Amino acid sequence: METIIHKADTRGYADHGWLKASHSFSFANWYDKDRLNFGALRVLNDDVLAPKMGFGTHPHKNMEIITIPLEGVLKHKDSMGNTWESVLPGEVQVMSAGTGVEHSEINGSQEESLSLFQIWVIPNKENVAPRYEQKTFDVVNRKNKLQMLVTSIDEDHDGSLKIHQDAKLSRLDLDENKMFSYDLKSEHYGVYVMVINGAIEIENTLLNTRDAIGISQTESFTMKAHTNTSVLIIEVPMRF
């Protein structure tokens, strides 16, 4: 088994006033040669947007983009015809950029900040037709059990959103002192675990809010919650 530890305070950070962004991997003006990606996981940004502010229209191509609002309301508009769709906490949004798409994202609230994760996964098929999905996931269905959010478009899994990569994104809420064993698809895959909030022990390492661990070259690992804890789990191929 191999592990890498990314403590919250080692992430890249940018304060643009209207946007406060923490980067788990090299992004924009923050570059770390040792943190370019984790397998097919290229970006995990932890963003907080001020009220009424956001990202103007900008392009993407050949990237699978997953957005998970944590607090507030996200408004999304794109060149595929989606006009200021609301994406709320409890929902997940997926956009396959493929041959090219333009979109805008803003904080839809006049008063409250918007907190979200934006995740980029390198696709296993390029130049596909752009596509968009969003879905609500009930918090009850991840209490002490794995809730699958995103899987491969080639995998027959009901209820999850789809991307063009053999990857899985899940959430898990563990009660204090609960344990959970996670099984990887094979030793050729790796798992990146981000602690959304709480404290959890994974492979004898204590991780607190916004700490993360990457685990590879193993078939399984175990987690134990030290408090009530919520985690985001991203499994990706390490070679792609």
Question: In CATH terms, what is the architecture?
Answer: Sandwich
Question: What class, by secondary structure content?
Answer: mainly beta
In spatial order, strands of the major sheet run 1-20-17-22-15-13-14
Count up the helices: 0
CATH-level-4 superfamily name: Jelly Rolls
Largest sheet: 7 strands, mixed
Q: What do the pLDDT scores average to?
A: 97
Low-pLDDT windows of residues? none
How do the helices and strands follow one another from N- to C-terminus? Answer: EEEEEEEEEEEEEEEEEEEEEE
Shape summary: globular
Counted up, domains total 1
The CATH topology label is Jelly Rolls
Q: Percent of residues in beta strands?
A: over 45%
The top level CATH class name: Mainly Beta
Architecture overview:
The protein is mainly beta. The protein has one domain: Jelly Rolls (Sandwich), CATH 2.60.120. It has no helices and 22 strands. The protein has strands spanning 2-6, 12-15, 19-23, 41-49, 54-60, 64-71, 74-78, 85-87, 91-96, 101-107, 114-121, 131-136, 147-152, 161-163, 168-174, 179-183, 189-197, 199-202, 205-208, 212-216, 220-225, 229-237. Strands 1-20-17-22-15-13-14 form a seven-stranded mixed sheet, with no helix packed on it. Strands 2-3-4-11-6-9-12 form a seven-stranded antiparallel sheet, with no helix packed on it. Strand 7 (74-78) and strand 8 form a beta hairpin. The radius of gyration is 17 Å and the shape is globular. The model has no long low-confidence stretch (mean pLDDT 97).
Give short descriptive properties of this protein.
seven-stranded antiparallel β-sheet, 22 strands, Jelly Rolls, single chain, mainly beta, 240 residues, seven-stranded mixed β-sheet
